[in-house]
Amino acid sequence: MPDTPLFIPVILGTPRQGRQSEHVAKFLVEQVAQRDRLETQLIDIRDMAIATNDAGESLKDPEFSATMERADGLIIVTPEYNHGYPGLLKHVLDTCLKEYIHKAVGLCGVSSGPFGGTRVIQNLLPVMRELGLVTIFYDLNFGNVQQLFDESGNLIDKQTYIRRMERFMDELVWMSTVLKYGRKEVSLEKIQ
User: Fold this and answer.
1) How many CB atoms lie within 10 A of CB 28?
2) What pTM was estimated for this model as a whole?
3) Which pLDDT tens digit goes with each residue over 53-70?
4) pLDDT digits (tens, 9 = 90+) for 13-38
5) Cα separation of 43 and 81, whole Å?
6) Beta strands 140-142 and 103-110, pairing class
7) Crossing angle, helix 158-185 and helix 21-34, to 10 degrees?
8) pLDDT value at position 2?
9) Angstrom distance (rounded) from CA 165 to CA 8
């Protein structure tokens, strides 16, 4: 591990009321924060004041941009809406570009059906690549999400998801560490 902790924020990718993915995002933040040498924070796109009258980097939010610049890796928690991702998530992600280049991203799909957001993850993969993010090899899926948490937002079968989270986080930490080293130590000019 590097001398400084890795910073891996969690992006909650929907502004909808009654969203079950909020429980998932809070669980992930809690789990990431418990790991040694990791720092995290929850970025809730509902709380961002992003205009919708333009697109891309012209709408850059300085705080979000600075957080993405500082990040060594990302976790995106997104529900699956009609086999796709929320439009506002894409709109927010598009406000940055250079901030993402050569950084690892782990995707977490959430759905009310049994497949746990598999299709939303498939649809996000080309978007991640175009943004310059490097997807890890393992995803997290929370299917039938309305049955996974109690009334207080606590995960009912925590052990099952902690085991899945361990594999996901091991891969994300490894990829984030390697890419952080590469961004710092290996210039593109050296390999051309």
Assistant:
1) 25
2) 0.94
3) 887 888 899 999 999 999
4) 999 998 999 999 999 999 999 999 99
5) 20
6) parallel
7) 60
8) 54
9) 14
pLDDT at 192 over 80: no
Q: Residue holding tokens 């894409």?
A: 90
- Given this model, what pLDDT does residue 54 score? 84
Instruction: Write the DSSP string, the chain.
Output: --SSPEE--EEE----TT-THHHHHHHHHHHHHHSTTEE--EEEGGG----SSS-GGGG--HHHHHHHHH-SEEEEEEE-BTTB--HHHHHHHTT-STTTTTEEEEEEEE-SSTTTTHHHHHHHHHHHHHHTEEE-S--EEE-SGGGTB-TTS-BSSHHHHHHHHHHHHHHHHHHHHHHHHHHHH--HHHH-
Q: What is the tens place of the pLDDT at every residue in 147-162?
A: 999 999 999 998 999 9
Q: Which tokens hold the place of 125?
A: 């993969």
118 neighbors 109 (Cβ within 8 angstroms): yes
Q: Measure the CA–CA gap between 7 and 28, rounded to whole angstroms.
A: 14
Structural domains in the chain, CATH included, are 6-184 (3.40.50.360)
